[in-house]
């Protein structure tokens, strides 16, 4: 199954959502899912419950959550994190497209990917 993305509040730039959607990626956002102003663990739980990989700029918190979930035996649908100031919208799009084209939803299960590794 193809990776479907959930962009949290930090990463849900309309230009990125539009660029990904125009290229055939199934994307939703915290805003579209009525998840704005929720804690990070709720974003991860929601993304997992709707079979989506979470994408965020909140590197520290999601790295910690990933570790906690894995350690406690709790599964998640996958997390992709990026440094907010490092990548333009176009570069985020190109790297996310690469991930979506290379990895399946099953391969993303319980994985933490850094966008910086996908150049």
Blueprint of the fold:
Layout: E1 5-7, H1 14-22, E2 27-29, H2 40-49, E3 53-56, H3 59-71, E4 79-81, H4 89-102, H5 105-108, E5 112-114
Parallel strand pairs: 1-2, 1-3, 3-4, 4-5
Helix pairs in contact: 1-4
How would you characterize the overall build of this protein?
The chain has 119 residues and is an alpha/beta fold. The chain has one domain (5-117). The chain has helices at 14-22, 40-49, 59-71, 89-102, 105-108; strands at 5-7, 27-29, 53-56, 79-81, 112-114. Helix 1 packs across helix 4 (89-102). The longest helix is centred in the last third of the chain and has 14 residues, at 89-102. It starts with a strand and ends in a 5-residue tail after the last strand. 34% of the residues are buried.
């Amino acid at each position: 199954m193809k990776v479907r993305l959930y962009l949290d509040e930090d990463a849900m730039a309309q230009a990125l959502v539009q660029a990904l959607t125009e290229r055939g990626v199934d994307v939703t956002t915290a805003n579209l899912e009525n998840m704005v102003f929720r804690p990070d663990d709720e974003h991860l739980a929601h993304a997992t419950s709707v079979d989506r990989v979470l994408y965020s700029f909140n590197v520290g918190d999601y790295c910690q959550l990933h570790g906690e979930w894995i350690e406690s035996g709790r599964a998640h649908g996958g997390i992709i994190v990026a440094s907010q100031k490092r990548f333009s919208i176009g570069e985020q799009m190109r790297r996310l497209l690469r991930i979506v084209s290379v990895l399946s939803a099953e391969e993303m299960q319980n994985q933490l990917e850094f966008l910086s590794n996908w150049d």
